[in-house]
Write a structure and sequence with these properties.
Blueprint lengths: L3 E8 L4 E7 L6 H19 L5 H20 L3 H12 L12 H21 L3
Antiparallel strand pairs: 1-2
Length: 123
């Protein structure tokens, strides 16, 4: 019912700005654009992770938050793909990621699905 896309709202209890992404039954074009932007940021971050364990942990943390957002707005198809991605993502401190290329490939497939959904969505 309520459609509020990517607005900052003041939370009166803790007096901080929180970002909300609400979508009614059908995910609208603005929501897909927001999802695509966040996914591109995660993709760029993932490209920096191969030799940096701190970036790898940051990618893992932000990916988990992104997965939660996908589930909250009812984007189950993409959320399922992302859950599979996180299942194989395990940050390591002193060695190269064993699943870097697999994760990269999964991110590329998710990007393609989001693009398809964006192209077929309406205002």
């Amino acid at each position: 019912m309520a459609i509020l896309i990517s607005e900052f709202v003041l939370d009166p209890i803790i007096q901080t700005r929180k970002r909300y992404l609400y979508v009614s039954d059908k995910i609208c074009r603005k929501a897909w654009i927001e999802i695509q932007k966040e996914l591109e940021e995660l993709y760029r971050l993932h490209e920096e992770t191969s030799a940096n364990s701190a970036k790898c942990r940051e990618f893992n943390r932000l990916s988990a938050a992104f997965l939660q957002k996908l589930e909250d707005i009812g984007c189950d198809r993409i959320a399922d793909l992302f859950m599979g991605l996180l299942g194989g993502c395990s940050p390591k401190d002193f060695s190269h990621c064993d699943n870097h290329e697999l994760t990269k490939g999964t991110l590329e497939r998710i990007r393609a699905r989001v693009k398809e959904s964006l192209d077929s969505s309406q205002e």
